[in-house]
Amino acid sequence: MNIIETDIPDVKIIEPDVYSDSRGYFMESWNAAKYEAAGISCRWMQDNESLSSRGVVRGLHYQLPPYTQAKLVRVIRGRVLDIAVDIRRDSPAFGKYVAVILDSENHRQLFIPRGFAHGFAVLSDEALFQYKCDNLYMPAYEGGIAPDDPELNVDWHIPAADRIMSDKDRKNPFFKVAELFDASEYMCNA
């Protein structure tokens, strides 16, 4: 497997080894020993899957302490633009984001540590999106940032008029008034 560093050192792109032949392909989507050797040593607590159509923008989501979450995300079918925004106030990358194309052809994964808001935009007719979380989802502890926040200025690759978003995501606050906290509150479960 190949690990690609991003502009934010804690966020990593993973290119798993994919073995293809006339029958299809095989890959390990998680191997604790290999990922730990690459610096990713979370204990996964929950797997999630979503199916979305072209133009859907989900996010930017995160959870508040003590239910912050690291995520390992990938696309099973389709293509998405995946976004991870650093929301750790004491981070040198505070307010910056990583944008990565994930699809069913490149098989890439994105590791997003605790302390990041996460979202994605569907660029194909539909996308089957899967992700592991190292902490359980707790609705009372969820936070969000408006996807169209002018300060973050995320290029979703979808015109604003064509974005399909939930009412809840549309009502999320802008980055400068969202409830955020320090990196010390974001430790990964090892």
Short characterization:
The chain has helices spanning 32-37, 167-170; strands at 2-5, 12-15, 18-21, 24-27, 46-53, 57-63, 71-77, 79-86, 97-103, 109-112, 116-122, 126-133, 142-144. By secondary structure, the chain is mainly beta.
Description of the structure:
By secondary structure, the protein is mostly beta strands. Helix content is 5%, strand content 39%. The protein contains 2 helices and 13 strands. The strands form 3 sheets. Strands 1-2-10-7-12-5 form a 6-stranded antiparallel beta sheet, with no helix packed on it. A hairpin with a 2-residue loop joins β3 and β4 (24-27). The longest helix is centred in the N-terminal third of the chain and has 6 residues, at 32-37.
Please render the helix and strand layout as text.
Elements: E1 2-5, E2 12-15, E3 18-21, E4 24-27, H1 32-37, E5 46-53, E6 57-63, E7 71-77, E8 79-86, E9 97-103, E10 109-112, E11 116-122, E12 126-133, E13 142-144, H2 167-170
Antiparallel strand pairs: 1-2, 2-10, 3-4, 5-12, 6-11, 6-13, 7-10, 7-12, 8-9, 8-11
